[in-house]
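Margin note from the TA: students keep mixing up input and output lines. Inputs are the sequences; the output is the structure of the whole complex. Example:
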Amino acid sequence: MHVVVTGGAGFIGSNLVDQLLDDGHTVTAVDNLSTGSLDFLGKAISRSGFELVDMDLLEEAARFRDIVRPADAVFHLAANADVRYGWDEPERDLRQNVIVTHNVLEAMRVTNVRRLLFASSGSVYGETTVIPTPEDCPFPVQTSLYGASKVASEGLIQAYAEGAGFCSTILRFVSVLGAHYTHGHVIDFVRSLRAESTVLTILGDGKQRKSYLEVTDCIAAMTLLLEADGRGEVYNLGVDQSCTVVESAGWICERLGVRPRFEFTGGDRGWIGDNPHIHLDPTKLQSTGWRPRYSIREAVERTVDYLVAEPWVLERPEARAAP
Amino acid sequence: MHVVVTGGAGFIGSNLVDQLLDDGHTVTAVDNLSTGSLDFLGKAISRSGFELVDMDLLEEAARFRDIVRPADAVFHLAANADVRYGWDEPERDLRQNVIVTHNVLEAMRVTNVRRLLFASSGSVYGETTVIPTPEDCPFPVQTSLYGASKVASEGLIQAYAEGAGFCSTILRFVSVLGAHYTHGHVIDFVRSLRAESTVLTILGDGKQRKSYLEVTDCIAAMTLLLEADGRGEVYNLGVDQSCTVVESAGWICERLGVRPRFEFTGGDRGWIGDNPHIHLDPTKLQSTGWRPRYSIREAVERTVDYLVAEPWVLERPEARAAP
């Protein structure tokens, strides 16, 4: 297959590109390199069957039509991917996530490319009380601009499935960890502990429960679903576990060999719209035969090891500090 | 209260304006008069405490800030309101519904206006199998660009409730009928029967079940919820009934005194993304004490009477024929 990966220089995208090339596909990565990095495509860039197109999906919608025209399938991963900073610039999620998704869908429609897989998020469940959360839990109430932008994108994709005959699959990720990881609490904690190893500031009360998926397990699920026959079919992507922020902070400290005092900013959540308990039900994904190789703890530890081995990732100017 | 009504010259908006003025509120109607009509504001226009602002919420976002600044509450009704024609121009619902809703929310946020009521739609439920459909039915799959644009708008509004302290109420309407009604199957059938009374073409197989609400019942619910304290709280607005398209066609013919032969275009739905069975559960709305005055049949009959009394509505160039 010829597969287009939007956000192909990003964390998940670059891992996906490598796997798709390993599987024998021709791959075009599209990325504006705003948060993605050429360094993540070091292996791919010299391989035959790979092309990187540096372009902006918001501003260059027409150009994307020419890129997508020869493709058999699109993984649409390009997005503002950080749930925490929506209120700094309330248009960002609308533009980078909703309008860009619309541009991708329209480009595919007019060029008759009909297979789409979309990186959505467990944040679309807002603060559901059904935990572990299945895909068909009660109609949720959104709590973040990021979640709202993802549920909006899902709706557009499902409408295109119904009205324009798209074969589309929606993947609701928990937080993903591993090689090429660039933002989230693990990098924040590692960065903080390298600067000052005697104290670690934790947003909220540290009792928030979260779920994490190791990126190779994530990629295995994504490539498994590449040829799925859904019309807006939704899958949760996560392990059947959760951990508290304090637990993961403890694993990170142990891995780094430091014993800081924990300080808490207080409250039951880390930021506006933070969901204090995330644990997605992976039963539907498991029905395809997929099983994760790594536990949450192993995912956290592998990420710490990656950041220690690749300290330049900690220094990237694009990597934003937590507020 | 000073209330801004976007889409205030439209079908539901103009009825709402009249009621708000009757209730003693100051009202600013905002409308670009693309599908709304000055004729619907004939009573309001001469009353004190009323102002109409002819402006476009998509193109004039900054101007809207000045309009909304003195307001206590906003009813956001401006939208592309026809679910049937999404695929003629796939950007329309995104622009007129999602981006305009974002513009309204941002204008309210920066001017510190915090009370919003939003006209959503039962189309957000897609083809749910739970009928009558409660507000917390299983996470739906979208089937139309219109429904997708409404669920996207709902999500944005809920995110602003959580993140910017909005007091907001989301109203999911069934199809509304009555005075100032300008598009939908009743006007299509009346127009068709005036041109040719011996045959009536019905989209689909005529067995689609739909639900309708008389506009005065709709307005009563909307004004009742004006001071509600929700944060993205959702209410279905409909009667606890449905009828088939053939039944409503029969009532329309009887009211007009014609006996056409019915012809069917076939299939179980009228257009791409049509939901063949709509019946919203109004239990939550009824818990506020609201009760409808009119049955579905009475709503249909009152609409036919309105169109017969005001035949100019049938001739408006904006009124689109069914495909």
